[in-house]
Specification:
heterodimer; A: alpha/beta; Ubiquitin-like (UB roll); de novo design (two linked rop proteins); four-stranded parallel beta sheet; 9 strands; 44% helix; B: alpha+beta; Glutaredoxin
Chain lengths: 416, 156
């Protein structure tokens, strides 16, 4: 029987998220004081040593990003942007952090800014997250009042201003360069990369873009050290990870556990098992832009190295459980409809491709056994071409669920 | 609220454009961006009208057409879809007598299909303006509608 290991969510449901005093009483802003007592270089060093990897989906080493953003053009303006545009279907863990422990994110952002010598930061939150926006806005005002934000923070000489910027309903803006376009008041179209944001980000300046959960890990790393952080999780994925478990489980919700947790333990011990009590049929790991795994993978360890070995992804930490009685074709259609709707239309292969593969999936239910198999094969081929010819992760994503459906569930799709 | 009053809350910096458009839209009783408000936003932000029009047309939360007082956004993303959102949209449509994207003749409700709203733990879910409703059934839908109709009557 496994249990939760709450580090990021330790205050959730325990303190009043509207009160900075309660956050401070619970040990909050201690990591920041410690960071400010040392050099910015020390902050970056500690984050590199911690082995923290981005929690937004790509899993890029956070320390490397920081080094890149800190190293460019000494003396220039640089920005810290928090990616709070949580839009991956099945993902709701950043919302949990922002609504139940908003000061932890703010503290993490100030530490990140100090590390790369940035004086201005933005939290880009999706427009539909009204509660997150309100909670964070309140927390930011309190942090200004107490001298954690603004000029000469805690007498350190370091200054940092932080603002919230709302999105307006675009999945694509969760992609870091597209988010920067949106922040600049434009349509959410992806940029060509490289250059990466650390070189040329917001307004062409070096910019550190990190996910909410990633930033929320920084106060703990600074306060307790990288060795402490590495005592949780695995070698390749140190720390805890918040999984948002949903679909056909009895207790859907956010669960913070050691990274590397066994998939079936997460589903059974924490999420209460499947609704009908029978072994699940499939799990979609990482949301729509994720991978399907069959029940034979129930012993999967949810960390980067083990998942990669078995061609699965961790993504944002979404765990969408599909019960034994459920059909997969409607779920596949729903995923493809989502990509079709969210494709921005900039790249032709993605614009046409997302529409085409969705249309093809709609023909599937009426087709017989063999035609279904060949439609699926054709869709996978198209998705592969899109993956190699699209600019941004959206066009590169449909191949992930489709290929894994084909690999593990062809027979189920042909006969359901 | 007067439009000029809205602008005073924001600096004329392009990072504020989306927030300004939200504020202008929220300020309109029909929840949409009028041509006049787009022109005002463009001149305030120092960009062309075509720029603002392009932005307003891109993001799904903005509307260039009048909408109802209450915007019902039913999540129809994979998780909610799996848990039955398509049936909810159908049920709402038949109770309200409109399809997705349409507004009731009394101007009270607009029905929209939304992409993942990040409330998958209570799927199927929806938002009515800023409020979240989860674990929906046909029955609970009707009581939500009733709640808003009553609120409307009290306003009158």
């Amino acid at each position: 029987m496994i249990r939760e290991k709450r580090i990021i969510l330790r205050n959730s449901g325990v303190i009043d998220p509207g009160s900075i005093a309660e956050y401070i009483n619970a040990g909050g802003y201690k990591g920041l004081s410690m960071a400010l007592a040392g050099t910015p270089g020390k902050v970056v060093e500690e984050v590199v040593a911690s082995g923290l990897r981005g929690r937004g989906g790509a899993g890029f080493p956070t320390g490397t990003k920081k080094q890149a953003a800190a190293g460019k053009d000494a003396g220039t303006i640089r920005y810290v942007v928090c990616n709070a545009d949580e839009g991956e279907p099945g993902t709701f863990k950043d919302k949990a952090i922002m609504e139940t422990n908003p000061h932890l994110l703010i503290e993490g952002m100030i530490i990140a800014a100090y590390g790369i010598d940035s004086e201005r930061g933005y939290i880009y939150i999706r427009g539909e997250y009204y509660d997150s926006i309100n909670r964070l806005q309140n927390a930011i005002s309190q942090a200004y009042d107490r001298g954690y934000l603004g000029t000469d923070i805690l007498g350190s000489g370091f200054s940092f201003d932080l603002e919230i910027k709302p999105g307006a309903g675009s999945y694509l803006c969760g992609e870091e360069l597209t988010m920067l376009e949106s922040l600049e008041g434009k349509r959410g179209y992806p940029r060509i990369k490289p250059p990466f944001p650390a070189e040329k980000g917001l307004w062409g300046k070096p910019t550190l873009v990190n996910n909410v959960e990633t930033l929320a890990n920084l106060p703990g790393i600074i306060e307790h050290g990288s060795a402490w952080f590495r005592s949780s999780g695995t070698e390749s994925t140190p720390g805890t990870k918040i999984f948002s478990v949903c679909g056909d489980v009895r207790n859907p919700g956010c669960y913070e556990v050691d990274a590397g947790v066994i998939l079936d333990d997460l589903i059974n011990d924490l999420a209460g098992g499947t609704r009908n009590g029978k072994p699940w049929k499939a799990v979609l790991l990482g949301g729509a832009a994720g991978t399907f795994v069959p029940y034979s993978c129930n012993d999967l360890s949810l960390c980067y190295e083990r998942l990669k070995e078995r061609c699965a992804t961790l993504g944002s930490g979404a765990v969408i459980v599909v019960g034994s009685g459920r059909k997969l074709i409607p779920l596949m259609q729903s995923i493809l409809r989502f990509f079709r709707h969210e494709s921005c239309g900039k790249c032709v292969p993605c614009r046409i491709g997302t529409t085409y593969i969705h249309e093809r999936s709609l023909e599937m239910p009426g087709a017989g056994h063999d035609p279904r198999i060949s439609i699926l094969e054709e869709m996978v081929n198209h998705a592969r071409q899109m993956a190699t010819s699209s600019l941004c992760p959206l066009g590169q994503s449909p191949i992930l669920p489709l290929e894994t459906l084909q690999r593990h569930f062809s027979e189920s799709i042909a006969t359901e | 609220m007067d439009q000029q009053e809205i602008f005073t809350r924001f600096s004329p910096d392009r990072t504020n454009l989306l927030a300004i458009l939200h504020a202008l839209q929220d300020n309109h009783p029909q929840n949409y961006l009028t041509e006049e408000s787009l022109r005002a936003a463009a001149s305030y932000s120092g960009v062309n009208l075509s720029w603002v029009y392009g932005v307003a047309g891109y993001y799904s939360m903005f509307s260039l057409e009048p909408r109802g007082r209450y915007i019902i956004r039913v999540c129809n993303s994979p998780v909610c879809n799996m848990m039955g959102s398509a049936g909810l949209i159908e049920a709402l449509g038949s109770v309200l007598g409109i399809g997705a994207g349409e507004t009731t003749p009394d101007g009270l409700f607009t029905l929209e299909e939304a992409e993942c709203l990040g409330i998958c733990d209570v799927a199927p879910a929806m938002m009515v303006n800023r409020r979240v409703y989860g674990n929906l059934t046909r029955k609970s839908l009707e009581s939500v509608l009733k709640e808003f109709r009553m609120m409307q009557n009290e306003r009158k």
